[in-house]
Amino acid sequence: MKNKLELTWYNKDKSLYYDLKEGKYIWVDRNDPRVAEPRILIEKKHYGDPAAENLLIKGDNLLALKALQPEFTEKIKVVYIDPPFNTGAAFEHYDDGLEHSIWLTMMRDRLMIIKELLSDDGSIYLHLDWNEVHYAKILMDEIFGRRAFQREVIWRIGWISGYKSKAKNYIRNHDTILYYTKNPDKFIFNKIYIPYAKDYKRRDGSKPKGKGYPMEDTWNCSEIDKLDSIQIKSFSGEKTGFLTQKNEHLLKRMIEVSSNKGDWVLDSFAGSGTTGAVAHKLGRNWIMIELTDNVDKFCLKRMKKIVDGKDERGISKEIGWEGGGGFKYCILGESLFEFDTQIKFPFINTTYTNGPLIRAICKMEGFHVISTKGPLHGQVNKRYAHITEQFVNQAYIEELKKEITDEDSLAVYCLKHESKIDSPDNVSIKRMPMVLAKKFAITC
Q1: Could you give the percent of the chain with pLDDT greater than 70?
Q2: CATH architecture of 337-437
Q3: Can you give the pLDDT at residue 2?
Q4: Which has more confidence, 210 or 416?
Q5: 387 - beta bridge partners?
Q6: Where, residue-wise, is CATH 3.40.50.150 in the chain?
Q7: Spatial separation of the C-alpha atoms in residues 387 and 223, rounded to whole Å
């Protein structure tokens, strides 16, 4: 659209791939499989209640968000993200030395998927400091629309002491939380109040009526509204050194306002796991994603302790938390593609056989998995998919035809097939990996 207000930056038309071996971001085309290919989630272990659906995912959050799309599109009620602020503190904990253009690209790609995951009445809280918040506001307006912006919440992060008090400037003492909704005309907002003090009286000497003071958009800024500042202690009572760890009361406020029990809460920059911890205690379902070893060092241990009823910090005593629930610990599956280093020709990753191959193809092609053993593996309405490593010939197709009606269609994905097969109009044969590689920046 001509003459529209937008934020521009270097390589805005590109995406970023984080190379774990190199430890740095690499600019790639937006349809490069390293950033565009949906991956399957591999469950490593289940903790607590076997029926629990909560997810703790270790891996690149861009790929993990894509992995969530088939099942969770328009199902998430609250997203809270506390991404690297692009400051010196971020270097230490995320090793991310990002320029503004890299930071904006990284956030843009993730926010676009998050918007799809949000329910129509869902909300997102983006927690930032002064380094990026003003750029992020324009970026959020571009993705969600200016009308979707609800409030700029100011959170006082601590009390002035030490080096802060000696700065030759106004003392910076707050973070900013940008609050947006998916649909500005329809969103959950459970209004909260700060209770009146027991001895509070009006000017005329009468006792006040009502629930208390309505919550404002400045938090932890008065004796009335006291929120703990940033926590730097882990659940074991020792300092984690993880400077972006937030207190549970802060998360409780946002989750209670914008969701109800049983709703889904997402944090794709999980850090030490505070979002999942609070969501779990408040009876919400949750998904947390974290790339670094903080998953094992903090998130996993913390959530196990909460499930076992051994967590006594944060909001636990206030709400009478005694344990319960459970969660799955998952990692991202490998790419479906491998390449010959000499001729750069793609082929199917040898780790994908049978069930994993079926799940990977269905996810990539947009089918819901209905079986990994029967003749029909994936389905979307009256469209079906069959995935095989076997050689497909005329007899093979004749048998599959019996599984569908004339109103149905069937896509058969195979590695090799007979050169001449007489198949009906509602049956198509797709050779892997060629038909899949065409979706991405891969030439066969």
Answers
A1: 86
A2: 3-Layer(aba) Sandwich (3.40)
A3: 62
A4: 416
A5: 413
A6: 15-332
A7: 63
CA distance 417 to 394: 9
CA-based nearest residue to 113, from 92, 148, 143, 136: 143
Q: What is the DSSP letter of 334?
A: P
**Residue 166: partners with Cβ closer than 8 Å, 6 or more residues away:** none
Three-class DSSP category at 25: strand
Strands in 143-235 per DSSP E: 149-156, 174-181, 193-194, 213-214, 218-219
Neighbouring CB atoms inside 10 A of 229's CB total 16
Q: Which residue has the tokens 């006040």?
A: 208
Whether the per-residue pLDDT at 342 is higher than 90: the answer is no
Q: How many helices (H) and strands (E) does the chain have?
A: 14, 23
Global pTM value: 0.83
Architecture of domain 15-332: 3-Layer(aba) Sandwich (3.40)
> Which residue shows structure tokens 């989750």?
255
Q: Mapping DSSP to helix (H, G, I), strand (E, B) and coil, where does residue 199 land?
A: coil
Distance between CA 60 and CA 100 in Å, rounded? 20
- Integer CA distances (angstroms), 347 to 175, 322, 338, 341, 430, in order: 48, 51, 5, 11, 14
Residues of each domain in the chain carrying CATH 3.40.1350: 337-437
Tell me if residue 149 falls in helix, strand or coil.
strand
Q: What is the pLDDT of residues 173-203, one digit of tens each?
A: 889 999 999 999 999 999 988 887 777 777 8
For the stretch 235-240, contacts whose Cβ atoms lie closer than 8 Å and that sit 24 or more positions apart, written own/partner, are: 235/301, 235/302, 235/305, 235/311, 235/313, 240/272, 240/298
Predicted pLDDT at 212: 82
Q: Is 365 helix (H, G, I), strand (E, B) or coil?
A: helix
User: Strands 326-332 and 41-48, how do they pair?
Assistant: antiparallel
Select from 117, 92, 408 the least CA-distant residue to 287: 117
Round to whole Å and give the CA distance between 26 and 37.
16
Q: At what angle do helices 61-72 and 100-117 cross, to 10 degrees?
A: 10
How far apart are alpha carbons 96 and 123 in whole angstroms?
Answer: 27
If phi > 0 it is left, if psi is from -120 to 50 it is alpha, else beta; for residue 14 that is beta
Residues 6+ apart with CB under 8 A from 107: 83, 136, 139
Q: What does the block give as tokens for 328?
A: 């799955």
Mean pLDDT of the chain: 86
> Quick check: 77 pLDDT over 60?
yes
